[in-house]
Design brief:
The chain is an all-alpha fold. It contains 2 helices and no strands. It has helices at residues 14-30, 35-66. The longest helix is centred in the middle third of the chain and has 32 residues, at 35-66. The chain is elongated.
């Protein structure tokens, strides 16, 4: 079994990483994947999840930065999810 690292997914966009993660979850939920392959898929899924979380955190920081006024003073923090 090969190790999957973050560098393997570092070039994926959020959308592509999320789509691959969703595909992995779907296959694992069906339960028709052999054990060794399931473990490898789960490992890749964890790396993809970490990558997606990192990209979301970066987007959140950019949104907060945008919430600064023209003079650099804070206008307030814009929440990522206003609900």
């Amino acid at each position: 079994m090969t190790e999957v690292s973050l560098s393997d997914v570092s070039t994926l966009t959020f959308e592509k990483a999320l789509a691959e993660l969703e595909a992995i979850v779907g296959k694992l939920e069906r339960g028709d994947v052999p054990l060794e392959e399931s473990i490898a898929m789960y490992s890749r899924g964890e790396v993809l999840r970490t990558h997606c979380e990192t990209l979301l955190k970066q987007a959140e920081m950019r949104i907060e930065k945008i919430a600064l006024g023209a003079d650099g003073s804070p206008k307030g923090v814009v929440p990522l999810d206003p609900q």
